[in-house]
Amino acid sequence: MTDAAWESLSNQAVAAAGLVYFLALLAHLVEWASLRKVPVTAVAAASADAAGGVAVDTAPPGDESAPRRAEMFGRLGYLLTCLAVAIQFVGLVGRGMAADPNRVPWGNMYEFTLAGTWVVALLYVVLCRRLKLAWMAPIVLAFVLTVLMVAVIWLYAPVAPLTEALSSYWLVIHVVSAIIATGAFTLGGITSALYLVKARRPGTETGYVGRLPQPEVLDRVSYRLHAFGFPVWTFAVLITGPIWAHQAWSSYWNWDPKEVWAFITWVVYAAYLHARTTAGWKGRNAAILALVGMATLWFNFIGINYFSTTSQHSYADSAPAPALSRDL
User: For the whole model, what pTM was predicted?
Assistant: First the structure.
C-alpha cells in the first residue's frame, strides 16, 4: 500500500470508530432509559455495591421486560465499544504506516489525541469486567466521542515525518507511559465526579444516579485507578521524560512549561495518594483533589500547546496547517 492509501485508511477507520462509538453510546442510553422508572431496592443496591456494578431490580407491573431489555442493550453497547476500540487501533496503525519513514503515530496533537482517547476506551474495556465499571459506560463513551470529534474537526494535520527531536526511542517509551497514565487518571477523574454527584443525592432510587454504586464504592474504585496511574506517570515524567530531554536538548530539565505542568500534575496526584494513606482523606475532599489533578493533566495536554509560545514541546507541523494543528 502507498503512503496515501495508508493515510486514507486511517481517516476512514477513525470515522468508522467514531460512528461505532456513537452506536455504543446509543445502546447504553437505551439500557439506562429502560431502567429509569425501575426503583432500586436495598437488596439490589447491596448486590450491585458488592460487585461494583449496576443495580438491576425487578420491573414494576406492566413492564417486566425492562431488566431483560436493559441487559441486552448493555451487552450490545459493550461489544460495540470493543469493536470501536479495534477499529480505532487500525486508524492509529494507518497513521504510522502513512509516514515515510514509518513512525509511531503521535507526531502531532491530532495523533496524540487519537492515541489518548484510544487508551481511555481500551482501559475501560479491559477493566470493565475486572472492576465492574458498567455504570461508567455512558460517560466514558460521551467523553471519548466528544474528544475524538474535536480532534477530527479542529486538530487534524496531514501525515508528516517526525522532527529530529521526536526521532528517539525514548519518545516512544515516554509517550506510551504518559498516555497510559492519562487514561487511568481520566477514568479516575470521571469516577470522582460521579462520586460527588452520588454523594449529593444518596437517597435517589431511580434513574442513572440511583443505579450508581454507593459513594464508598465509587471512592474505592477511584483510588484504585489513581494508584495504578501514578507510578506510570512517575515513570513518564521523572524518568523517561528527562532522559529524552537530555538526548534532544542536552539537558535533563529545561524549565519548559510542559515539564513544569507535568511536575505540578505529579505533585497533585502525589498529594492525593499521600493524603489518603496517611491522613485518611477519603470521600469529598479526595474527589475534589482528584479533579484538580485531572484539570492540571488536561491543561498540560492541551493548554500548554496553545497558550505557551516558549514550550519546546510545541513543534510546528512540517506541512502548512492551521495554528490549532500543533505538535506535542
Answer: 0.84
